Structure formats: structure tokens, C-alpha cells
Amino acid sequence: MSKTISGFSKLSKSKKIDWIVDTYFSNTEDAKRVLKQYWSSNEKLQQLHDEFIENTITNYYLPLGVAPNFLINNTIYTIPMAIEESSVVAAASKAAKFWLDRGGFKTKVISTTKIGQVHFMYYGDFNKLQSFFEHVKSKLIKEAKPITKNMEARGGGILDIKLQDKTEDLKGYYQLHASFETLDAMGANFINSCLEQFAETFKNEALLFDGFSEEEKQIQVVMSILSNYVPDCLVRAEVSCKIEDLNEDDSLSAEDFANKFIQAVNIAEIEPYRAVTHNKGIMNGIDAVVLATGNDFRAVEAGIHAYASRNGKYSSLTHAKIENGIFYFWMEIPLALGTVGGLTGLHPLVKLALELLRKPSAKELMQIVAVAGLAQNFAALRSLTTTGIQQGHMKMHLMNILNQFEASDNEKILLTDHFKTNTVTHSAVVEAIEKLRLKN
Asked: What pTM was computed for the model?
């Protein structure tokens, strides 16, 4: 049975590791070696990483790759992507190259409104609550001024606060539903600070409101928190070209490809089992760029998947059609991103990634991220409706299998050449490497 420990967070990094390896690992020296080999030799850089989170014991590496040749609104980008999955960067790069000569990607930011809520319980007369809210609304905004001053100076701040009656869903449940503009910041800390100030002012003023009974004055604030569902923080990305320009495969006409591609999208629009995998492919591209640029990919994932269910059924995020001989493929998604604050000014690789993207504003980053998702989905659907997904994916996965068996450089060259004309499966690679080693 594993041991428990008290005061773990107060231990030094070295003592934390000692306890972990002594408690959970049979080969303590080997476990320590694995943990320490990922430390940076630069002590200042390592300390920076240690202080990103609590109880840090080592660094966890993900490959940082780049996908070049993205033409977005007539500007060429090379997009950084942090991800471990084979073929994602290759697929994005292939899609970028495909659309480079067909007009590239077109994008626009539709809106940038973000949401936060004060959730509270009130069991009195609703008309009195409505009257109180109208009375106190201006004071809510006024008393948050010390928080909003700098944001307002840059053109952002609180857009509106509304009283929401949610008692049909939960007895006594109401919200202060606030909207914000946070410009180049993702804005989580700003929004949460505003909400907590709203809550304090709201409770204090309720105690002084003559229209309430003594019982009604006792408003219970449950919590004050931003929402990662941002359906009014939207960006659109699309590609289009003449149907005949889609032809790259002699075995399938451009028109047949377009029709088959559209049917694949249509299936994802109506079949949730397919839609989940379809959208996961989109998120391969989105998450990789979000992570590379120091943003919160969990928040992005949650918001986008909620948006995919906004009509009561989980559905495809992308859409496709043919109109007047033109093939259109597009997506509108919610993205709350930042290019200032958080890790963007701390993590050296995040700063490098943002510089690679020419130091984009939050709006520009929204567009780049959306394009990465659309490109990824195009590449996946193109494979699915032509050669099948495994041919390209398994060829990319080949190197992982070879590394698993500690193949030498010469073995990698010989086996990579062998699988140019043979189907890649895990068992086939194992068999091939064993035969090769028997010969030697």
C-alpha cells in the first residue's frame, strides 16, 4: 500500500523526488536519472519552469514543430505547433501547400465578447430583485473602476451586466451575467477580479436596499467565475476554389472528390459518433497552436465542444458546399486567446513562437489558430475520402515504432525504404526489424 505524506509541498525539489522514487519505484536510481535528464542545464531557466506550477519535479517535453506555407488573408505564415501525435504537422503542412496556389485561407473575426457570471441564490420577490438590480447596476461598474481603469484606457472593459432569472432550472437561482472586452489579453484574471468585486458590492448594497425584507436582503453568492463558453467570441476561416482546381488524383475526378468530401462533412453534421472524431481532428491543429503560443488549450477545447452542441445535438464544426461551380469549406468557432499576460511573456519558447507569427494581436492569433484547425480537417477528410487515413498516418508512425525498438540509424534507413512500398502495421514493422537483425 502506498504511503501518504504530510507537508509534501514544503519539501525541496530534491526531497520531493527522493520520496517519490523511494515510494513508487523499484529502481530508484533509474527513476531519478529519467527525471533529471529533462532538467535544463541553465539554472535560471530551470527555476522559471519550476515556478510555473506547484510540486515541479522535472520538465515534460513535447515536440515543437512548424507548418510552413500558410497563406492567410494574403500573408504567408509559418505556424508553430506543439504536439506529440504523428502526422499532424505533416497534414497541416500538406493542406497549407494545397491551398497556397488556390487563393489561400480567408479569415475574419466576427466578435470578441467574453462572459463572466456571478451565481447567486435569492428566494424573494423577483420584481423587487429586478428593481434592486436596476438601482445597483451603475454602482457595480463604478466600484470595479480600480480594476477596469487600465483595460478601459486600452479600449476594453465591461460591456454590460444583465440579471438572469434561472429559477425554472433551479429554485432560487439567479445570475449577474456580465460581458467583457479584454483586447489582447485572454482576460481570465481581469474578468474574475471584476466578478468578485461585483459580488461584494451586490451583497453589501442588498443589505441597505429599502425595497427588500430582512430575509430578502440575505442574498447568497455561490461563486463568481468567468465562462469558457464564448459563443460571442467568434472567428471564421474558409477556403474556396473552382471544382476543377481540386483535382490532384488521377483515380478520382475533381467533381467526384468534391461531392464525396461534402458528404463526409454532411455525415459529421448529423452523426454524433462521427462528429466527435471529426472535431477531434480539427482540435489536433487548434490545440497544437494554442499550446505553442502559451494559451489554455483546455479552456479552448471546452468552449469549442460546447459550441458544437449549441443546437441540442453534437455536430460538425466545419461545413462544405458547392455553389455556382465553386467549392467552399469553412468553419466558425469560438476562441478566447491572449498574446499578453500568462505564459506569453514568460516562457522562452512561447515568446519565440509568437515572434515567429510576427507578434500577432489576439484577433490575429484567433484567425491563425482557426486556420490550423480548418487545414487539419481538410487534410483528414481528403485522406479519408481517397486513400484512407491509415496509409499516411502509419507511415508517420513508423519512426515511433522503430524508436521503440531502438533501431540504429542504418536500420531506420533500410526499413523506411522498405515501407515505402509495403503496408505499415506494428506487427509488420516488428517482423521486418527482426528479419533484418537476423541477417546481421
From this structure: 0.89
